Amino acid sequence: MKNKLLNNAAYDLKFLLNRGYRKKGALNFVSNKYLLNKNERNYLFRRTFSDSKSLSRQGKLISLDEIGGRNIFVDGYNVLITSETIINHEYDSLVMCDDGVLRDLKAVFGKYHMDINTEKVMLAVLQLITQHHPLFINFLFDSPVSKSGYLAKLTNSILEVQGVKGSAETVRNVDYELIKRSNASCGVVVTSDGVIIDRVEDILDIPYWFCMENNCLKYLE
Question: Is this model's pTM higher than 0.85 or not?
Answer without folding.
Answer: yes
